[in-house]
Amino acid sequence: MVNNTSTTKVLFVCLGNICRSTMAEAVFNHALEKRGIAAEFEVDSAGTASYHIGSNPDSRSMETCRKNGVSMNHRARQVCREDFTKFDYILCMDEENLRDLKEMAPKGHTATIKMFGTYDPKGDRIIKDPYYGPQGGFDRNFAQCTRCTDAFLESIGYE
């Protein structure tokens, strides 16, 4: 449901916060801007692991977004305890991230924690890690993040 009294806060999460979650954040922000509703949201991304804290997104994620007209500006960070009460939705990329987030979540947290892929109308629940694969994995992730973004926004009352 749309929260009309304040911003809706969404956090995207993958393992290292340089490929999938940064792309999801960029795609989501782009969709918000196109719809003219960016001011109604606060969006960020993070990783469950600390491997890349402070790093730029993977160059292949950046290039995939760039070639699709989507800007990306992020420095990797790790999920922190406060995220579980700050954000309304924490949307992760796969079952391992989901399990890790549920283990990390403090008692009494308020965030809804789900896999972003549960919103994919094609039923492709897992947003696979493209890091060790060819460019096609990044292209596939971009298309999937776009589908999931549209479906998620619709699910909370935005067309």
Automatic annotation (TrEMBL):
Q: Name one GO molecular function term.
A: non-membrane spanning protein tyrosine phosphatase activity
Q: Which residues form a coiled coil?
A: none
Hydrolase recorded as keyword: yes
**Domain of life of the organism encoding this protein:** Eukaryota
Q: Where in the cell is it found?
A: Cytoplasm
Keywords attached to this Swiss-Prot or TrEMBL record, sorted alphabetically, are: Cytoplasm, Hydrolase, Protein phosphatase
Pfam families for the chain: LMWPc
**Substrates-to-products reaction catalysed:** O-phospho-L-tyrosyl-[protein] + H2O = L-tyrosyl-[protein] + phosphate
The answer to whether the entry has keyword Cytoplasm is: yes
> Where's the Phosphotyrosine protein phosphatase I domain?
8-155
Please name the catalytic residues of this protein. C14, R20, D129
Which terms in the GO cellular component ontology are assigned? cytoplasm
InterPro entries in alphabetical order: LMW_PTPase (IPR050438), Ptyr_pPase (IPR023485), Ptyr_pPase_sf (IPR036196), Tyr_Pase_low_mol_wt_mml (IPR002115), Tyr_phospatase_low_mol_wt (IPR017867)
Q: Which CDD domains match?
A: LMWPTP
In the record, the note on similarity to other proteins reads: Belongs to the low molecular weight phosphotyrosine protein phosphatase family.
Report the protein name in the record.
Answer: Phosphotyrosine protein phosphatase I superfamily
